[in-house]
């Protein structure tokens, strides 16, 4: 499902070069859930941005669902992402002028769902993450944790083949985080989505099939 070969990301700051990812190798199968842990600044967000095609590697190859990202134009990566990848990033990027239901419906409408059908599916997911009664509100009227849950619903609503999550439960209490884990279980079981979850939360990490630790630009298996 996901394969990285000799992935390198070097940041240049004037004359300085910082190698954040160094010949990194990673494989995730369909339906498999992987946690990525590592100290602050170890490159976890950098890795997620590369996997989602938001940033380009300095060298190396990323293959998702049989497609190599290298060589795709920005717009081709954009439409590939819409079809295959669900994202939860630290900044949620919800559309401010749309309600929670509309935000979660959007990826379905892009895929050709009718508005009513999309809204129904979106609402069911918002209910699953405990914000059903906030569905008619815009992001500015929601708390940080509520916005985060809307972003999680939006990432999962299309049953994407790959889900990328950066600290998905960072703002959430234990009970709410538990309901997110249950939803991830459902999605993984139903649609064989692969998950890559960056987290500092040991409970979230332990819930995945494998834990990979990012250290000195490489991934080592922990469990
Ligand atoms: N655009 C950039 N230009 C230069 N350096 C960058 C850039 N983005 C990230 N870095 C550096 O790359 C390193 C890895 O950053 P990254 O955000 O990937 O770490 P992280 O593991 O996600 O950290 P955290 O757990 O704190 O979120 C850091 O040293 C950071 O300062």
From TrEMBL:
<keyword id="KW-1278">Translocase</keyword>
<dbReference type="GO" id="GO:0005886">
    <property type="term" value="C:plasma membrane"/>
</dbReference>
<dbReference type="InterPro" id="IPR027417">
    <property type="entry name" value="P-loop_NTPase"/>
</dbReference>
<protein>
    <submittedName>
        <fullName>ATP-binding cassette domain-containing protein</fullName>
    </submittedName>
</protein>
<dbReference type="Pfam" id="PF00005">
    <property type="entry name" value="ABC_tran"/>
</dbReference>
<keyword id="KW-1003">Cell membrane</keyword>
<keyword id="KW-0547">Nucleotide-binding</keyword>
<keyword id="KW-0472">Membrane</keyword>
<feature type="domain" description="ABC transporter">
    <location>
        <begin position="5"/>
        <end position="223"/>
    </location>
</feature>
<dbReference type="InterPro" id="IPR017871">
    <property type="entry name" value="ABC_transporter-like_CS"/>
</dbReference>
<keyword id="KW-0067">ATP-binding</keyword>
<dbReference type="InterPro" id="IPR015854">
    <property type="entry name" value="ABC_transpr_LolD-like"/>
</dbReference>
<dbReference type="GO" id="GO:0089705">
    <property type="term" value="P:protein localization to outer membrane"/>
</dbReference>
<dbReference type="GO" id="GO:0044874">
    <property type="term" value="P:lipoprotein localization to outer membrane"/>
</dbReference>
<dbReference type="GO" id="GO:0016887">
    <property type="term" value="F:ATP hydrolysis activity"/>
</dbReference>
<dbReference type="GO" id="GO:0022857">
    <property type="term" value="F:transmembrane transporter activity"/>
</dbReference>
<keyword id="KW-0813">Transport</keyword>
<dbReference type="GO" id="GO:0005524">
    <property type="term" value="F:ATP binding"/>
</dbReference>
<dbReference type="InterPro" id="IPR003593">
    <property type="entry name" value="AAA+_ATPase"/>
</dbReference>
<dbReference type="InterPro" id="IPR017911">
    <property type="entry name" value="MacB-like_ATP-bd"/>
</dbReference>
<dbReference type="InterPro" id="IPR003439">
    <property type="entry name" value="ABC_transporter-like_ATP-bd"/>
</dbReference>
<comment type="similarity">
    <text>Belongs to the ABC transporter superfamily.</text>
</comment>
């Amino acid at each position: 499902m996901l394969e990285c070969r000799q992935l390198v990301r070097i940041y240049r700051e004037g004359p300085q070069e910082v190698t954040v990812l160094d010949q990194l190798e990673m494989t995730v199968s369909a339906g498999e859930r992987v946690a990525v842990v590592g100290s602050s600044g170890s490159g976890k967000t950098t890795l997620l941005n590369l996997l989602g095609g938001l940033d380009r590697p300095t060298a190396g190859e990323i293959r998702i669902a049989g497609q190599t990202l290298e060589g795709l134009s920005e717009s081709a990566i954009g439409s590939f992402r819409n079809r295959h990848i669900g994202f939860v990033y630290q900044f949620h990027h919800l559309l401010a002028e749309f309600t929670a239901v509309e935000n979660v419906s959007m990826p379905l409408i892009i895929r050709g769902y009718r508005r009513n059908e999309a809204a129904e599916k979106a609402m069911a997911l918002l209910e699953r993450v405990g914000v059903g009664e906030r569905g008619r509100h815009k992001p500015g009227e929601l708390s940080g944790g509520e916005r985060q849950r809307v972003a999680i619903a939006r990432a999962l609503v299309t049953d994407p083949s790959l889900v990328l999550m950066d600290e998905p439960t960072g703002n959430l209490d234990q009970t709410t985080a538990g309901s997110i884990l249950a939803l991830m279980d459902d999605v993984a079981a139903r649609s064989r989505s692969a998950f890559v979850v960056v987290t500092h939360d040991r409970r979230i990490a332990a819930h995945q099939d494998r834990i990979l630790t990012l250290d000195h630009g490489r991934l080592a298996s922990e469990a």
